[in-house]
Amino acid sequence: MARVALTVQMVESAKPQASAYRLHDTKVPGLSLRVLPSGVKSWNVTWARNRDLAIGKYPTVTLESARTRARRKLAEADEHGAPLALLKSKPKDLTWGVYLADHYKPHVLATAKAGAATVANLEAQFAHLDDTPLTGISRAEFDAFKAARLKAKIKPATVNRDLDRIKAALQQAVNWELLAVNPLAGVKRIKRDIEQRIRYLTKDEEKALRKALAARETLAATRRESGDAWRVERGYEPMGPIVGYSDHLMPITLLALNTGLRRGEITQLKWADIDLAGRRLTVRAGYAKSGKARHVPLNSEALQVLTDYRKQHTGKGELFGIASVKTAWAGLMREAKITGFRFHDLRHSFASKLVTRGIDLNTVRELLGHGDIAMTLRYAHLAPEHKAAAVEALID
């Protein structure tokens, strides 16, 4: 969010990014230009906290026209509490189901990266609201939904995502002047305990994991050798020994263990994101959870893994070309005899190792790509000796 005295050149040159952003005009406080990932630019006016109204799209509405409209809307809000357009009668018979199908679904499919998943979730989780007018949706309605989800043992993080999706949908209805105010604007996400248990590999578990990975590679090499012997005996061309790794599992596991990348970040990596000479990889903004690009240095093991893996690839396109490691991971955990450990927990293992070895939490936050230090503070308890040293410094 930038605050500048907007010019025509600034508006014209504003480029779309991985997520929507706004340029706020200092000449008419309250006026902003919203730039969507799709490239659509729209003018909005804000007159109070969480009170926002779309007043036109650029270039149909020019900068000066937008300023004129914004001043008028702000004057109306000052006199009446809200722009007059919002105080007029709304289509009271517009139900959630109709709004979702006819208005929000086409919009989100066209503008959001995960639009299809968002719509599928809204349709599945809020089907009970299909016949409810938008004006009839209330905080009490969502509280009842939340209570039922939690009672069904749905994780708070999942319920929070439910809330985020429906709040965004209702806010868009406000932007389109189909709803006067967002009834869920003040509903807060469930706070999760930052001291929740963090599952990470013990030293013995890491040894077992590495042993299982090596055994898997050895078995694949043995099978290839046996298969080639069978082919030669029958006059077929042998496939030759495996160069690099037998498949994706070992390199993707070791890369996660040494970089702390999320599964979704790793599976979307491209060879263009890998700089072997510079010993770093780049997580692009388009697939980073935070929506911000970050550069992650490669330690010696991660560098060797990618160097070896490169031998069996062209070095173009996707790094791994897979969407999931679920089946292969489950088999690996059985072989390693490790229980209750998800692929995502490799990220916790990466962070835990850094903290226990004295790396400061802000550096850990940057490496993990956390937008909020509160997420990184979950690992603070793993370095009690640093806390002890800090309070000991008070003694003369």
From TrEMBL:
SUPFAM superfamilies: DNA breaking-rejoining enzymes. GO terms for biological process: DNA integration; DNA recombination. The keyword Cell membrane does not apply. It comes from the Bacteria. Belongs to the 'phage' integrase family. The keyword Hydrolase does not apply. The lineage of its organism: Bacteria, Pseudomonadati, Pseudomonadota, Gammaproteobacteria, Lysobacterales. Residues 196-392 form the Tyr recombinase domain. It comes from Pseudoxanthomonas indica. GO terms for molecular function: DNA binding. Keywords: DNA integration, DNA recombination, DNA-binding. This is Site-specific recombinase XerD. InterPro entries: DNA_brk_join_enz, Int_N, Integrase-like_cat_sf, Integrase_catalytic, Integrase_DNA-bd_sf, Integrase_DNA_bind_dom, Integrase_recombinase_N, Phage_Integrase.
